[in-house]
Amino acid sequence: MKQNRFKQLLLHLPAAVRNAIRSRAEDIAHSTKLREERLPLHWNEASARTVSNEVEELLRRGAAYRTQEDEEFTRSDRKIAEDILTATSRAGVSNISRTAAYLSCYEAFPELHWAFLAHVVSRNAGWNMTDLRGSRMADALNEEGKRNVYRFLERSNALIFQDAYPQLLLYQKSRELGASQFHLLRYFSVSRFMRPFWERFWIDKGSALLTVGLIINEQNYIEQRVIRHPFYQRHVTDKTNFHLYSLAGLNQLIIPLFEGNSVTRLAGRTVTDFGSLPARIALGKCLYAMLMGLRAVKSGAEAFARAVPHSGSRADYWPDIFTANPEEALTAPLQGSELLESETLPTGERLYSPKLLEAWGDTPYEPISREDWLKDTSALDGISAPQTPLLCDISREHRTGVLKTAFAHDAALPFKAD
User: Fold this and answer.
1) Residue 400 half-sphere exposure, CB side, CA atoms within 13 Å?
2) What is the domain range of residue 174?
3) Coil vs helix vs strand at 74
4) How far apart, in whole angstroms, are the C-alpha atoms of residue 271 and residue 26?
5) How far apart are CA 119 and CA 105, in angstroms?
6) Do residues 182 and 202 make contact, with C-beta atoms less than 8 angstroms apart?
7) Is residue 350 part of a domain?
8) Can you name the residues that pair with 252 across neighbouring β-strands?
9) InterPro entries of this UniProt entry (predicted)?
10) Which residues of the chain are modeled with pLDDT < 70?
11) What is the mean pLDDT of the chain?
12) What's the number of CA atoms in the CB half-sphere (13 Å) around residue 374?
């Protein structure tokens, strides 16, 4: 039986290679179409220099980082801040609620481009979390490994929300009052790095500069708290299984594009070096330029976000391949051959991708350190105009990634008891 399965896998390899080559060519052709109509991001180089100079001045002065315990705030200030903390806590209970909160914020204030980018990325975080409980990863990791990777993804998602969402609500409050309230950023232990960006945004409404600032800030925020945290380095990022997780094609960040009543294409990028801070910042800027700088991507992504509530299941955007119902999941022993033979899978024979709240329960965390990550001028290196990549359609590449995980699943079968 085991020899027969190996033979079947080897027989399918040439077809899989041909599939990958065709997929690349098709994605290149569709990327050209997506790039036809550009939208201006209105990057202001003078404002960028001003903000950079202000951050440098903060570092030169060695301005002490203070939190709400030693900052003097008025009664009104504290009322505003406590209301924001309450709203953040309420909206931050899960990846599902966080993702919805980002979209609500963007729809209320479309100039907050980062909120929509965060919504898109947060959807992907949810899909990656449920992949760990779906049929594609069923045999790739043991239970402890799955739980550790889940905690890694969930903590990153939760911490970014905890830091960024109060900033978004503070802007909304400033709009409501007609006056800047960004002195309250310190109340939430937001890095000194962000105040010049928000004050400049309040003056000139430069969405692109603020978005770049938030991308740099949030990636630095999780760098020591998650990416370089000893627990996650020991149990996740330094483990072979984590690298296999990426090699298996689960490291693609996708933007479903809705047209009519369904998803027609997938824009996005492949994450090549999640452990590198500069690489994550560059990826964020690249995604932003694609999401808000290409009309076809922006309109398609907005239509999908409004039409399809986030559940965490990949069936949200690809119901012809995935199902959130375990009773309709694929039962064939070799997933790769099934996917290689057909563009879709029939009802009752689709890959299982559960809804997030059904896959994972609540996750308690230890207290979050509140020190300012800003220590030197290295963060200023990322302050530059976002550039749209040449390859922005990854519809076929994503399907190839699904196929890779299916073959990885199939390859593991001969080592299991018959």
Assistant:
1) 21
2) 38-311+368-384
3) coil
4) 20
5) 10
6) yes
7) no
8) 270
9) DUF2515 (IPR019658)
10) 1-23, 63-71, 138-139, 239-250, 331-341, 362, 364-367, 406-418
11) 86
12) 27
- Determine phi and psi for 253, rounding to 5 degrees: -105, 110
The burial class, CB within 10 Å (0-12 / 13-18 / 19+), for 360 is: buried
Query: 272 is written with which tokens?
Result: 């090549």
- For residue 41, give both structure tokens: 């991001």
Residue 69 in any domain: the answer is: yes
Q: Tell me the residue type at 162.
A: Q
Q: How far is CA 128 from CA 8, 71, 124, 125, 150, in A?
A: 29, 40, 6, 5, 8
Neighbours of 76 (CB within 10 A): 10
What distance in Å separates the CA atoms of residue 128 and residue 271, rounded to the nearest whole number? 13
Q: What is the per-residue pLDDT for 62?
A: 79
SS3 of 350, please?
strand
- Integer-rounded Cα Rg, in Å, for the chain is 22
On whether the CB atoms of residues 166 and 190 are closer than 8 A, the answer is: yes
- Taking the C-alpha atoms of residue 234 and residue 145, their distance in angstroms, rounded to an integer, is 11
Number of structural domains found in the chain? 1
Both tokens assigned to 268: 């996005």
38 residue type, one letter: R
Q: Distances from the Cα of 98 to the Cαs of 103, 126, 173, in angstroms? A: 9, 10, 19
Query: In this structure, what token pair is assigned to residue 221?
Result: 């925020």
Cβ–Cβ under 8 Å, residues 227 and 160? no
The verdict on residue 56 lying in a domain is: yes
| Beta pairing class for 262-270 and 322-323 | unpaired
pTM of the model: 0.90
- Long-range contact pairs involving 190-194 (C-beta distance under 8 Å, separation at least 24): 190/163, 190/166, 190/217, 191/217, 191/220, 191/221, 191/372, 191/373, 191/374, 192/55, 192/58, 192/63, 192/65, 192/372, 192/374, 193/55, 193/217, 193/220, 193/372, 193/373, 193/374, 193/379, 194/167
Residue owning tokens 């994550």: 280
Contact indicator for 21, 397 with CB cutoff of 8 Å: no
